[in-house]
Amino acid sequence: MYKTHDMCVGTFIVIWFYTCASFFVYYAERRVIVRVVKRLNTNVAMAKDSNGVEMIILGSGVGFPKVPYELTDLNKVERTFYDIDPQYYEMIKRLPRSVLLSSAIIAELAESQLDCELNPNLPVTLADHLNFAIQRVRKGLAFAEPLAYDIKHLYPKESALGNRALIILKEHTGVDLPACEAVNVAMHIINAETSYGDIHTTMLSLRVIENINKIVEEELHFHMDKDSYHYSRFIMHLRYLVQRLMTGQLEHETNTNTFLRSFILEYPEVYGCVQKICNYLKKEHGWVCTKDEILYLMLHVNRVKEQNDRGS
């Protein structure tokens, strides 16, 4: 009987201990404080988190009180932005809350669906572009046609995100941008994916890929099926090849001489096409392809060609 009583008491003490511990952990979490240090506009402010790390916070009225102050109600914070380049602080001051929030949601969706880390400045730079586009719509100004490059086939995931972005923007701002703006949003996302992080470099990359496509079609006398699996693989290879050539981070040479010689003898037409691609890259951009890159290009071009031959 006494043993049973002692066990009950012991069990009660353990339950009481864990209940108290859980309460204190919960209370500590609820007491997390954000210190707001500088106002950017009524709804955006610079702040420091509980670890003293600087960030930008977005929320209705967070920039209204006199700074510095301690923000204890974290429900007011709609989004936090870390590692924003200070050069964009002035830009942030001019951005409406609804547009910046829309852009943040788009950036989060892109990072999730592309499964990669994007440039932390994307929410700001994209919001700036969207805000400018909204102003043009309200003034009744015409929009320039998007780039002639086939973004839909070169970057299908980013293109789909561009279309979704226009829906998100309308939900939060009530503004319906023209469909051509989806391409511009996709361009910003593509730019945020790259290590060079420069929109002009991204456009150069697109132009190079488009020119390589033309060389393949002209040299091998067929029209590529841009909805095919092998074309998607080919484009993916070109994207990474151009990025490596731009940054000078080429693949290390491996012992591919025997395989390359054999492939050249078996597919001379494909080799001639790839040679023309390499000559174009060297003449126009000063980029030199290694033997490994030549072999990989031949493999991808040949797959696309064989798929066309089977379909014709």
Keywords for this structure?
312 residues; alpha+beta; five-stranded antiparallel β-sheet; 12 helices; elongated
How is this structure best described in words?
This protein has 312 residues and is of the alpha+beta class. It is built from twelve helices and five strands. It has a five-stranded antiparallel sheet with strand order 4-1-2-3-5. Strand 1 and strand 2 form a beta hairpin. Helix 6 (156-173) packs across helix 7. The longest helix is centred in the first third of the chain and has 29 residues, at 2-30. The chain starts with a helix and ends with a helix. 28% of the residues are buried.
Low-confidence stretches: 23-31
Distance between the termini: 90 Å
Helix percentage range = 55-70%
What is the radius of gyration computed over CA atoms, rounded to a whole number of angstroms?
27 Å
Percent strand equals: 5-15%
Query: What is the number of helical segments per DSSP (H or I, 4+ residues)?
Result: 12
Mean pLDDT: 85
What can be said about this structure in brief?
The chain has 312 residues and is an alpha+beta fold. The chain is 62% helix and 8% strand.
Draw up the topology in text:
Elements: H1 2-30, E1 34-41, E2 44-48, E3 54-58, E4 69-71, E5 79-81, H2 89-93, H3 97-114, H4 122-139, H5 151-154, H6 156-173, H7 181-193, H8 199-220, H9 229-247, H10 257-266, H11 268-285, H12 291-311
Antiparallel strand pairs: 1-2, 1-4, 2-3, 3-5
Helix pairs in contact: 3-4, 3-6, 4-7, 6-7, 7-8, 8-9, 8-11, 9-12, 10-11, 10-12, 11-12
